[in-house]
Amino acid sequence: MNPILEAIRISYGLPALEKATWDFDGYVKAFEQAGGLLAIAREQASYGHLTVEEGREIALAALERYDAIPESTDLLPQEILTNLAKSVPDALKGLTSLFLERHLAFAQEQIFREADAPTRDKIIALLESGISSCYKRGELLSALAWIGDETVQVQFQHWRTVPPAWQTAMHYPPEHYVKNGGWELTPEGARRNLYYSVNYDLVEAQTFSAEVQSSPVEVLTPHEGVCGWCVMPLLTLFDINLTDSRMRFLGIQGTRLRLALCPNCSLQAEPVFTEVDGEGTSVWSKLNGKAQGYLSIPDEDESEELLETFPQQTLVLGPARRTPYIDHGSHLGGCPSWVQNADYPCCLRCQRLMTFVGQYLYNVEAYIYAFLCASCGIAATNYQQT
After folding, report:
1. Are 312 and 221 in contact (CB under 8 A)?
2. Which residues are CB-contacts of 243 (< 8 A; sequence separation ≥ 6)?
3. Could you tell me which of 365, 314, 47, 356 has the C-alpha nearest to residue 202?
4. CA–CA distance, 109 with 112 (Å, rounded to integer)
5. How far apart are CA 159 and CA 142, in angstroms?
6. Contacts 24+ apart (CB under 8 A), 2-6
7. Nearest to residue 359, comparing CAs of 385, 83, 145?
8. What's the pTM value of the predicted model, to 2 decimals?
9. Concatenated DSSP letters for 326-351?
10. Cβ of 365: how many Cβ atoms within 10 Å?
11. What is the pLDDT along the chain (386 residues), one digit of tens a residue?
């Protein structure tokens, strides 16, 4: 029996499964030493090696817990279902109608990503009728965005062409919400993904020493340029060797891609844009324009303090993650882990949303994100924190 399954079963107080054979006290002691049953159940990394069958059993256990205390503020069932959606392909197939019946979501709309056609159509019907007392329209639109199939694309294109009456009560048009599912609607009404399907972990070099010499990615290395707003030295967030076969997923011709950040301005409200190519060019872009008045410009001492918060070259390329949706921690490829709302920068040349390349866990509450418009040679970094 998989220990993660047993940890969650025990935390729910559910009866033992007939096929289970384990030392109950031994498991409880081991999990308490590891930080507690609930901590393990909430940890996204705990789900990476589950089979589909184990994932499904955990999902059913989560629903059983939710049914026992549906009116409480306990969000553990939603957290577990979201972790399964991100980490265990097919584990939630056939269950999404049960989520809708229970009004499960609460900013965890990715649990509907593998929804079947009847569930998808019911979500569309709830949107059009406006009769749902539990879901806001933004939540339903985000759920549809995660489903993102051809029917959903046609529906969003229809709403863009013929705005629904209920749009007037919203801050944004329906198509704005598709980026919550990691894509944008093209002018022709098709889906263009804003993330790569390949997803690599970025790990501490000392914990993955065998790969250090062959890592095609260097993280937080020096840069020869300066920020055009605050004149601080730039840093290279990701220095990528494009000749390495593991980097083919980026689809960029050349030998080297460098994505830079400003240690000051990238951590404030505005994205910072640079101009790049496949041969290592990385320069501050004049397209950034003038600095916004609210940007803080550090003095010499503050600049040194900011630079000290960025340790040099601590991460290397680790193993490929199971799915593009596993978004915790530092990684290259896959989907971003938004601390706040989905915020893909708009390319200053073509005005399309930029593709997410990777993220760096700056501290326990913040991420720095890197984006690229390969066709325009424009890169960007931005930042979110709790």
Report:
1. yes
2. 216, 255
3. 314
4. 6
5. 14
6. 2/50, 2/51, 2/54, 3/27, 3/30, 3/31, 4/40, 4/46, 4/47, 4/50, 4/54, 4/58, 5/50, 5/54, 5/57, 5/58
7. 385
8. 0.89
9. --SSSEEEE----SSS--PPBPTTT-
10. 10
11. 455 666 666 655 555 544 434 444 554 454 444 445 567 778 888 888 889 998 998 898 888 888 887 666 778 888 899 999 999 999 999 999 999 998 887 667 999 999 999 999 999 999 988 777 688 899 999 999 999 999 999 999 999 999 999 999 899 999 999 999 999 999 999 999 999 999 999 998 876 655 455 899 999 999 999 999 999 999 999 999 999 999 999 999 999 999 999 999 999 878 999 999 999 999 999 999 998 888 888 888 888 888 888 887 689 999 999 999 999 999 999 999 999 999 999 999 999 999 999 999 998 889 999 999 999 999 999 999 98
Strand partners, 275: 283, 378
| 238 closest CA partner among 254, 252, 218 | 218
Strand blocks (E) in the chain: 183-185, 191-193, 196-204, 217-226, 233-241, 256-261, 272-276, 282-284, 315-320, 331-334, 355-363, 366-373, 378-385
Q: Of 229, 218, 314, whose CA–CA distance to 263 is shortest?
A: 229
Q: Please give the structure tokens belonging to residue 282.
A: 């990385």
Task: For residue 1, give the amino acid letter.
Answer: M
Q: How far apart are CA 319 and CA 4, in angstroms?
A: 21
Structure tokens at 144: 């549809």
